[in-house]
Amino acid sequence: MSIVKIPKIKEGSMFGDAKKRPSVDFDSKRVKDFIEGAPDGIRHRWKLKGKKVVITLTIYPEDLQKVDEIAETLGITRTALINLWIQI
Fold first, then answer.
1. Contact at 8 Å (CB) between 76 and 84?
2. DSSP letter (8 states) at residue 27
3. Strand, helix or coil at 52?
4. Alpha-carbon distance 52 to 44, whole Å?
5. Exposed, middle or buried, 71 (CB in 10 Å: 0-12/13-18/19+)?
6. Radius of gyration of the chain (CA)
7. Closest C-alpha to 41, from 50, 28, 31
8. Which pTM value belongs to this model?
9. What is the pLDDT of residue 10?
């Protein structure tokens, strides 16, 4: 195998501007949307409310009534009760 000298590219040729890259604004909405659209590019999968994540919970009405009764007995909100149970 022989070693070949790399040819010089003339200015103004078809490849003369190959080294110049367009400037990219990585903070632009278009670039962020493109990156977040990739399967591994999603930054936030959750809807945030302040620093907390908003969730949807599906339970039977009877169970919700029990949760509300316990929360009322303790004098706290349903959300506070669920967060307390998670911490236990």
1. yes
2. T
3. strand
4. 12
5. middle
6. 29
7. 31
8. 0.48
9. 67
Given this model, what pLDDT does residue 53 score? 87
Tell me which residue has tokens 């908003």: 54
Q: Which residue has the tokens 């962020």?
A: 32
How far does Cα 77 stand from its chain's mean position? 29
> Cα–Cα distance between 42 and 24 in angstroms, integer?
20
Residue tagged 């632009």 (tokens): 28
E strands, the chain, are 48-49, 52-53
Question: Tell me: the pLDDT tens digits for 20-72?
Answer: 677 878 888 888 888 777 766 666 677 778 888 888 999 999 999 999 999 99
Could you tell me the end-to-end alpha-carbon distance of the chain, in angstroms, rounded to an integer?
70
Point out which residues pair with 42 in neighbouring strands: none
Tokens of 72: 């009322």
Amino acid in position 39: P
What pLDDT is attached to residue 32?
A: 81
